[in-house]
Amino acid sequence: MTDAPPPEYKGPQRVFSGMQPTNGLHLGNYLGALQKWVKLQDSFECIYCVVDLHAITTGPDPENLASRCREVAAAYVAAGVDPKRSIIFVQSAVREHTELAWIFNCVARMGWVERMTQFKDKAGKDAQRSSVGLFDYPVLQAADILLYKATHVPVGEDQKQHLELSRDIAQKFNNDHNAPAFFPLPEPLIQGPGARIMSLRDGSKKMSKSDLSDMSRINMTDDADTIMSKIKKATTDSMPVPESKEGLAGRAEVENLVGIFAAVTERSVEDVLAEFGGKGFGVFKPALAETLASKLSPIAAEMRRLNADTAALDAILKDGAEKARAIAQPIMAEVRDVVGLWRA
Ligand code: TRP
Hints:
Blueprint: E1 14-19, H1 27-40, E2 45-50, H2 52-55, H3 65-79, E3 87-90, H4 96-105, H5 110-114, H6 117-123, H7 132-146, E4 152-154, H8 160-176, E5 187-189, H9 224-233, H10 252-265, H11 269-276, H12 281-308, H13 310-339
Parallel strand pairs: 1-2, 2-3, 4-5
Helix pairs in contact: 3-12, 4-7, 7-8, 9-12, 10-11, 10-12
Tryptophan is lined by residues 16-20, 51, 54, 141, 144-145, 153, 155, 159.
């Protein structure tokens, strides 16, 4: 006899995602996340968080943490996340994130968390000296998502394993408490070209703000001339743009540029190759640079405007935190009941 499948989760379809408050957002953040977040607003109730509690896992920065949060929130809004339709807030403004994280610490198993490859990468050789918070990072991430009973989570490839952990935690919590459909098992949304934006210099490395060479990335605030010169100098080879996807094999840098073009124009890779296949990079690169500049310039201008108007941005974040609390607090009260915690 096989077990009956678990009952379906019946709550609303809801998206949750977050980004750490880092300055220096780049094209990878825009195409890999923000542009997709904006789209999702058409089909879901969306909650977008700036995760400052995650940021302190790698060290304190009390002077700059708040301004880093504002900068990232400004990028959300400038990219097109609409504070009237979606919830935009800073994680630590909703205390329940940490409360649920503790409960999940008691659900997650050591073996599950020890398997997380991102911790191993971030902690490096000396894991013993990294913070317990860095180890526990993915458990807090599960709390972020499930505090809102989010059903869908747009994330990059590198966060897939963390999302699987969130599903495992949700499942075990439901089983352990005999509450079969209490938490949904959140689904990753990882799709389309632009899921992975690579360095302009080395197609095997992700585009990253920590790359020493600024030429390796397009920053969200780069102006048109800078974008043009970075794209012109981007690594390619001497062959023309291929006519089909098979022709991208073994040409990681070319594949990346074509993927960027497809993502930014919201076209398929096939479609882009149908237009540029057989043409040289002397044609393709200027077209790409112009497209990027016309997409990013208005966003950069709006980011500058918002960053100069702290009061307006703070009002958005205050309103977002209130809306987030209105969802989180009743769910947290239910969790406390299900766990049998003291009714204070
Ligand atoms: N760990 C994510 C990242 O580095 C950020 C994050 C924190 C997140 N909490 C989340 C993403 C919840 C999605 C859902 O990109």
